[in-house]
Amino acid sequence: MVQFKDVTKIYKGKTPAVSHANITIKKGEFCCFIGTSGSGKTTLMRMINRMNSITSGEVFINGKNVNNLNPVDLRRKVGYVIQNNGLMPHMTIKENIVLVPKLLKWSQEKLDQKAKELIKLAELPESYLDRYPAELSGGQQQRIGVVRALAADQDLILMDEPFGALDPITRENLQDLVQRLQQKMGKTIVFVTHDMDEALKLATHIVIMNDGEVVQDDIPENILQNPANEFVENLIGEDRLAEAKHDTVQVKEIMLTTPVKINLGASLKEALSLMKQRNVDTLLVTDDDDHMKGYIRINRLEHRYHRASSVSDILESDIYTVKPTAYLRDTVDRILKRGSSYVPVVDDNNKLVGIVTRSALVTLVYNTIWGDTDPMSSAELSKHQKDQVTKGADDDHD
Ligand code: ADP
Ligand code: MG
Q1: Of 206, 242, 293, 387, whose Cβ has the fewest other Cβ atoms within 10 Å?
Q2: CBS domain spans which residues (predicted)?
Q3: What is the pLDDT of residues 313-364, one digit of tens each?
Q4: How many angstroms separate the alpha carbon of residue 19 from the centre of ligand 2?
Q5: Ligand 1 atom 24: the closest Cα is on which residue?
Q6: Centroid of ligand 1 to alpha carbon of 39 (angstroms)
C-alpha cells in the first residue's frame, strides 16, 4: 500500500530530518511511527501525501510514485487527522464532516446520509450535527476529527499524534474508537505517536525513529522480544521488557538444537560409549527419520547388558515432550514440576528438534520474574545449556 524507498528529507540548511528510510506498509495494517520529539516522524508521514516534498528516494502508494500523482487529488484521497482536529470553527459539525465528500462533488442526499452515518460512528447524538465545534468538548471534537477522516472512503489514513492533547480517559476511548473503526472498515492507518503504550495498543506494525533514522521496523511482538538497541529498550521500558519476555518466549528460542541422541537400532555397546563420550546418563532415542521414540538410562543399560543387545530392548517410551512453538508461560510449570533435567522438543511430526534444559529454564524464569536488569543474551543462554548437557543429566527421569 505505502512504500518508502531510500527516502531522505533535508530541510534547507539542516541535517537530514529523515535519512534513507525503507519501509513497506501493507494494506490493512495499523502502522505506528514512534520516536522522541524531532526524530522525523511527522516529516516521514507527510511525505506520503506530499505535504512535505521528498529530497531523495521515492514514495509509492499502491505502486504509484506519489511524485507522479496530482498533490491535490492525493490529499483528498488520503485521510488526514491532526492533533487539534482541524475543525473549521465557523462551520457546523455536519459541514465539517462532509467537507471532503463535498469537494468530491457528492450529491446532497449522499452527503446527508454520510453525515448521519458518521455521527453514529463517532458515537455522538445526531443532534450534534447542527452544533458548532466550540459547543463540543475536546474529546468530542476529536471524535469528529477521526470519523471525518473516514468520510470520503479513503483507504489510507494518516494520523499525527491525534490524541496527544487529550486527558488519559478520553484518549483511551478514542483509541478504542479508532481501533474498532479500522478493524471494521479495513483501512490502512499510519499513526504518529511518541507514546509506546499507545503504539503497543493500536499497532500491527511499528516503525521506530531516532534522529531521522529508522531504528527498527517490525511487528510489536518482535520489537518487544528483540529490541534493536538501547534506544528501543528505553522506549519500551524495562518493566514491559521483562513482562514481554516472560509472556512471549517460545520453547524454540531457548532450546538447544543438538541433543545427544541415538538410533533405535544401535547396539548397547554404542549407546554406552556415546554416554561416556558425552558424559550423560540418559540418551534420547530416535528412528532413522529422527522421530522421537523415547529414552534409555544408563542404570537399566548396565543391569541388562548381558541380556539385551540393542537400544530398542531397554527403551522407555513414556516421555514428556513439548512443541517448539509452545509458550514457556504455558509449559514451564509442567516442565519444572516433572523434575526432569531436560525435556525433548518435538515438531508436529514427532521429530526431535531440540531439548530444553531445566537449568536454562530456571535461569530464564528467574530473570524474567524477578527482573534481572541484565538479562542473559541468547548466546549466553545456549552456551549455558551446552554446559549443562555435557555435564550430564541427573537420573531423575520419570
Ligand atoms: P517529529 O514529528 O518526530 O517530532 P519532525 O518530523 O517534526 O519530527 O521534525 C524532524 C526534524 O526536522 C526536526 O529537527 C525539526 O526541527 C525539523 N523540521 C521539521 N519541520 C521543519 C520545517 N518545516 N523546516 C525546517 N525544519 C523542520
Ligand atoms: Mg511530529
Answers
A1: 387
A2: 255-311, 315-373
A3: 889 988 889 999 888 767 766 676 666 778 899 999 999 999 988 777 766 6
A4: 16
A5: 11
A6: 8
From atom 17 of ligand 1, which residue's Cα is the shortest distance away? 17
Residues in the ligand 1 pocket, defined by CB under 6 Å: 11, 14, 17, 35, 37-43
Give 139: exposed, middle or buried? Use CB within 10 Å, 0-12, 13-18, 19+.
middle
The tally of CA atoms less than 13 A away on the side-chain side of residue 150 is: 26
pTM score: 0.62
- What's the gap in Å between 210 CA and the centre of ligand 2? 12
For residue 222, the cross-strand partners are none
Question: Which three-class secondary structure state does DSSP give residue 329?
Answer: helix
Same domain, 234 and 262: no
Angstrom distance (rounded) from CA 348 to CA 342:
19
Specify the pLDDT at position 246.
58
Residue 367: give its domain's CATH number: 3.10.580.10
Q: Are residues 224 and 279 in the same domain?
A: no
Do residue 211 and residue 68 come from a single domain?
yes
CATH number of the structural domain spanning residue 180 = 3.40.50.300
pLDDT digits (tens, 9 = 90+) for 160-195: 988 887 888 888 888 998 898 888 888 999 999 988
Tell me which residue range forms the domain holding 143. 2-241
Q: Whose CA is nearest to atom 14 of ligand 1?
A: 38
On whether both 203 and 264 belong to a single domain, the answer is no
Our mutation pick for probing the ligand 1 site, out of 42, 43, 82, 194, counting the most ligand atoms within 8 A of Cβ, is 43
Q: How far is 89 from 132, CA to CA, in rounded Å?
A: 7
Query: Quick one: which atom of ligand 1 is closest to the CA of 44?
Result: 6
- Whether 258 maps to a domain, the answer reads yes
Q: How many domains is the chain partitioned into structurally? A: 2
Same domain membership, residue 258 and residue 237: no
Closest ligand to residue 55's CA? 1
Residues 18 and 150 in one domain: yes
Of 7, 9, 14, the one to substitute when testing ligand 1's pocket (max ligand atoms within 8 A of C-beta) is 14
Domain closes at, from 207, 241, 275: 241
CA of 50 to the centre of ligand 1 (A): 15
Helices (H) and strands (E) in the chain, counts: 17, 15
Taking only the tens place, the pLDDT of each residue in 70-128 is 877 786 678 877 766 678 888 899 988 887 777 778 899 999 998 998 898 888 999 99
CA angle at residue 159 from 33 to 187, to 5 degrees? 95
pLDDT tens readout for residues 23-63? 999 999 999 999 988 999 999 999 998 889 999 999 999 99
Residue 48 lies in a domain: yes
Residue in the structure block whose three cell numbers are 533535508: 10
